[in-house]
Specification:
single chain; mainly alpha; 226 residues
Length: 226
């Protein structure tokens, strides 16, 4: 469990503290239901990336589906009904689809160029398109995009923000830099954790990172402010 001193460290060091914690492997197994003691919590988020074959399947990767809307609910958020209908049947869905077509598929964040994630990129514009909708906050926008590009775009919610803060210039770029540092050492560590925990290779390095940080921070004594 990271101490207050660790939480005061720079972003990459705080991230390593969670990923390298002795509890990380067990947390992954608990979250994904690989080894769960009787009476232990059941995490619906374990189905986020795999529901209906995944949001990045070739035939649906560039459009929002009803399964995507259910998938984000497994992570405890709900897309407001008017926005959901617009994504499925309206102009919003068409505009988002146009942007998604320009966001690389099948690429890990660690292997992508920073420009793919920078301000003004198609991915950034897709995030802002969602965020600009009434009652769609940064958490919902990010989780929808993470469903469509699970290897490239991360989940970022209040618990993760509490653990890692709001790095500048953005969480995406800070995480990208951390994953690429030291010849992609952190990325390789996340893949090793995935294997050690017995997870499917379809669970992305980003998702491993998200779950380890989320579980580790929730286990701490101090609650995260809303």
């Amino acid at each position: 469990m990271p101490s207050p001193a660790v939480l005061a460290q720079p972003f990459t060091e705080r991230l390593h503290a969670f990923v390298d914690a002795p509890r990380a492997r067990g947390d992954l197994q608990d979250y994904f239901g690989i080894s769960r003691a009787p009476g232990a919590p059941v995490y619906t988020g374990r189905r986020f990336e795999h529901l209906a074959g995944g949001g990045d399947r070739t035939d649906v990767a560039d459009r929002i589906t009803a399964e995507d809307l259910v998938a984000v609910q497994t992570l405890s958020v709900t897309v407001p009904a008017p926005v959901a209908l617009d994504l499925l049947e309206g102009r919003l869905g068409a505009r988002l689809s146009e942007l998604l077509q320009a966001v690389p598929q099948g690429v890990d964040m660690a292997d992508a160029e920073a420009g793919v994630l920078s301000e003004g990129s198609p991915a950034d514009r897709a995030w802002h398109l969602l965020y600009d909708q009434h009652d769609v906050n940064y958490v919902i926008a990010g989780k929808l995009l993470a469903r469509k590009r699970p290897r490239l775009l991360p989940v970022y919610d209040r618990v993760v923000r509490c653990a890692l803060s709001r790095p500048r210039p953005s969480f995406w770029l800070a995480l990208h830099a951390a994953l690429r540092a030291d010849d992609r050492a952190l990325h390789q560590r996340l893949l090793a954790l995935r294997e050690a925990a017995g997870l499917a290779q379809t669970v992305s390095a980003l998702r491993v990172c998200d779950v380890v940080v989320w579980m580790g921070r929730r286990a701490e004594v101090h609650a995260c402010p809303r």
